[in-house]
Design brief:
The protein has 200 residues and is of the alpha/beta class. The protein has a single domain, classed as Rossmann fold (3-Layer(aba) Sandwich). Helices cover 31% and strands 26% of the residues. It contains seven helices and nine strands. It is globular, with a radius of gyration of 16 Å. The protein starts with a helix and ends in an 8-residue tail after the last strand. The relative contact order is 0.15. The N terminus and C terminus are likely disordered.
C-alpha cells in the first residue's frame, strides 16, 4: 500500500461501529478529517452523544457525522453534493443499517433552508468545508435558526479563527472553547453562552 493510499483510508474510531472503514472517493477538495483529529474532537465533546441531533454540512466521507451516530447521536444529517461521495456514504449507511442517519443530496445553504423550513434544530454542527471558497462566511451567519439551545459548532479552517471573526459570523454569545492544529488544518470547538475556561 502506498503512502498516498494509506493517507486516503479513514475509519470510524469509536462507538458501536468502531473500526468500520470508510471510502474516500477521488473528489476534488475532499479532505477527510484525520483519525487523530477526530479522536481529539470526540475527547472534547465526550464519547457518549446519546440524544443529540447532529448536522454535518460538508459530509465528504461522512466520517464526522457517522462518528457521532456511532457514539449514540439520536439523528444525523449528512449533507453532500458530489455524486461519488453520496454513493460511497449510501453504501456505508446500508451496510450499517444506520436508520438514524439521513443523507441529504444538497449544497450546504439549501440544506440549511430545508432544515429551517422543517423546524429542525441541531445540538451539534460539523463544518469541514473545502478551503479557499469562503464557505464559513456564507454558512456561519445562517446557522442561528437551526441551532438548539446550548448548541456546539466544530469548525475546520485553513487559518485559526479570531474572536472578531466569531463575533462577526455568530454574534457576541458565542465563544471558542477548544482549538488545535494538525498540519495545515486548524480545528475549533465553539459554544453559545458563556462557557467557563477549558469547558468541553
Amino acid at each position: 500500500m502506498s503512502r498516498e493510499q494509506a493517507a486516503h483510508k479513514v475509519r470510524i474510531i469509536g462507538g458501536l461501529w468502531k473500526r468500520t472503514p470508510l471510502q474516500v472517493p477521488d473528489v476534488p477538495g475532499l479532505r477527510p478529517t484525520p483519525d487523530r483529529v477526530r479522536e481529539t474532537l470526540f475527547n472534547w465533546l465526550g464519547h457518549d452523544l446519546s440524544g443529540l441531533h447532529c448536522l454535518d454540512l460538508f459530509a465528504g466521507t461522512g466520517a464526522l457525522g457517522l462518528e457521532a451516530a456511532s457514539r449514540g447521536a439520536q439523528s444525523v444529517w449528512l449533507v453532500e453534493t458530489d455524486r461519488r461521495a453520496l454513493r460511497a456514504i449510501a453504501q456505508v449507511l446500508d451496510k450499517l443499517k444506520a436508520d438514524q442517519v439521513r443523507l441529504v443530496a444538497s449544497d450546504a445553504l439549501s440544506a440549511l433552508s430545508q432544515a429551517q423550513s422543517a423546524g429542525h434544530r441541531f445540538d451539534l454542527v460539523f463544518l469541514d468545508p473545502p478551503f479557499g471558497q469562503g464557505w464559513l462566511d456564507k454558512v456561519l451567519p445562517r446557522l442561528a435558526p437551526v441551532l438548539a439551545d446550548g448548541a456546539r459548532l466544530y469548525v475546520e479552517s485553513e487559518q485559526a479563527l479570531t474572536d472578531d471573526e466569531i463575533v462577526q459570523w455568530l454574534g457576541t454569545r458565542w465563544a471558542l472553547v477548544k482549538a488545535d492544529r494538525a498540519g495545515q488544518v486548524f480545528y475549533h470547538l465553539l459554544r453559545a453562552g458563556n462557557p467557563t475556561k477549558g469547558e468541553s
